Prior knowledge:
By secondary structure, the protein is α/β, with parallel strands linked by helices. It has helices spanning 44-48, 116-120, 128-137, 159-162, 164-175, 192-200, 215-221, 228-240, 261-271, 287-298, 303-313, 332-348, 366-383, and strands spanning 64-67, 75-76, 86-88, 91-92, 121-124, 146-148, 179-183, 204-209, 245-252, 275-280. The termini are far apart.
Amino acid sequence: MRPTVPPDYPDDAIPEPVHKGRGALSNESSRFDSEKRIRTTDGWEQEASPDPSDDDDLPPLRTTLTRDATRTILARNTSPDVPFDRSINPYRGCEHGCIYCFARPTHAYLGLSPGLDFETKILFKPEAAKLLMAELASPKYRCDVVAMGTNTDPYQPVERDLKVTRQILRVLSDFNNPVGIVTKNHLITRDIDILADMARRNLAEVFLSVTTLDRDLARAMEPRASTPQKRLDAIRALSAAGIPTGVMSAPMIPGLNDHEMESILDAAHKAGATRAGYTVLRLPLEIKDLFEEWLRLNRPDRAERVLSLVRQMRGGALYQAEFGTRMRGEGPIAQLLSGRFAAAVKRLELNRVRYRLDTLRFAVPDSARTALVDAKRDARQMRLF
Length: 385
């Protein structure tokens, strides 16, 4: 016989412990989960610690890596909001942990949370270079600029050891296929040898994303990305090596970092940036709740104002996904940001030269043709067993 009274579970969730060095505060269920996870207490731990959110004795929340057995590496898109139609993401998830990252909801497709899972459970693509070589060598392939860093950062901390991005760059260089990169990590300077060589052939362009010059805000908002100064140092090093380098002052969050737009552009220009761009905060799907949770803990005095200003740029909602407005917003606040950006770019003489990366040099190297023939032969032999 079924009980008529539900079990006596606690009614109120208790706060998640704050994990140092991580952006998200919680690991909320994704939009595809049929059940919602909440953290509660039965009271026992309160005898040891009166504050259930006390995180002093917590072990560090470590990053775990999983091999991604993807069969293709080039992702295609037809969005009118971005200037590229193909991209490569060496990783799924991003250890940088930027709380505002619009890519967080993609982890839901893996059955994982866009919260802490997104920045601690990283999938990497060890066969990326081999897959790319096969796609570029295909007779059906037509050369165009490959974008990297459009979803997750290709130079997140795990790249230091895995070197998946570096292997991809070597393949692109061998095929003379141009690449455009956006990153928040100084680690990109490790690959100056490849990028400078590609730049001499007009095959490479890099943007560093600088969200704030405030070290404390950056530490809270982007806990494992390079510090603002290290990103400016990367702009300086890349520019000095002859690599066309720009800055993305992105995302601009009204009431939180938008007052820094001109300062960011000034600092990047002094470091050698010749191009600039910006976007405004995007909060699709689960990010709305994750960002608001972070904001109320880290900037409680500004939370209501920031959320109100975001709504004013999004037609009264925290996010609207319409093409044409999702990157820059709309309304008076968005117009003011656009005007300020245009004035700063004109004053600093940024964006005077628009680089057109060379797509006419593309050629399949003999080594790739040989490797492709060998791979097809091996595949045929495997089918015999």
